Amino acid sequence: MDEKLIIKKYFSPLSHPVDSFGLSDDVAQINVKNNSQVVFNQDSLVAGTHFFSSDDPKHIAKKSIRVNVSDVISKGVIPYGYFLSIALDKTINENWIKRFCRGLSEDQKKYNIKLLGGDTVSSENGLFITINMISKSSHEVIKRSTAITGNSIYVSGFIGDSAIGLSLIKNKSLQEHLSEKHINYLLMKYHLPDPKFNIVGLLRSFASSSMDTTDGLFHDLKTLSQTSGVNFHIDKNKIPYSRAAGAFLKHNNNFDLAYFGGDDYQTIFTANKKNHSNIIEFAKKIKVKITQIGFVGDKQRKPILFDENNERISNSINTFKHFK
């Protein structure tokens, strides 16, 4: 396969002709005169760690887009466009690239974003994908460091679906007590996360701090807590599960998998407790499930995550780590 031909045939049609110069140059240029903030974020996905090489290329493409979209929207920002760097090994053929770009195209329409540029290289062994996303905003980003004592803690959507889906792939015996509908739902949640794009307005209106759930709910709550320098108190009984996840947990009782498993790509945020009814009403209007799962405690030099019994929440064998 020829790099220039691949770019011209598959990636150029995805690009913006003005901002990216049609992918004919080494840079992109974005007019930001009407926006006061330019926001950048980047995520990399590696075969065998974030997806399986045998996965549908469309799903791989969409997951690559969505993990980055999740970062941006959790900051109260709408994404604008992205740079894509991809390393392809000898197992990748033109049909794979065609399906991969079809996935990119579908999600570009879904999120109203465009390809701005990037790099396409060969790899001796393995598939590597890096997306650098750029956003324009007239709003300040919502930081991780600004949770306030007395705030309520919220999470969007459901927790644990993706981690449970991955466990079903790795150990098919775990599927025995689940219906086909629940199995398919959980597998798809692993392959194709669905960050709540329309949560941006809610976060801008109410959130004092926020981030997305990438590395597991409790791990990310701990990150938010430590970055803000405050204790978090979490009621495990209030954590929201889908019907499929609930059915799995009922038979397997492995709640740690849901607490620590990762790849949910939901949003956790803190907000003034006085705004609770307004937050719930706003969530209903935008059709996003929002659940209050705890409150922000006192300032602490070394913040701690507590459960509903005021016991410290420790790490689990299911805690995701990039390096072990």
Task: Write a compact overview of the structure shown.
Helices cover 35% and strands 22% of the residues. It is of the alpha+beta class.
Q: Strand count, sense and closure of the main sheet?
A: 6 strands, mixed
State the end-to-end CA separation. 36 Å
Spans where pLDDT lies below 50 across 5 or more residues: none
How helical, in percent, are the residues?
A: 25-40%
Strand order of the largest sheet: 6-8-5-9-7-10
Number of helical segments?
10
CATH topology of the largest domain: Phosphoribosyl-aminoimidazole Synthetase, Chain A, domain 2
CA-atom Rg in angstroms? 20 Å
**Global morphology:** globular
Briefly, what CATH class of the largest domain? Answer: Alpha Beta
Q: In the CATH hierarchy, what is the superfamily of the largest domain?
A: PurM-like C-terminal domain
Mean pLDDT: 90
Strand content: 15-25%
Number of domains: 2
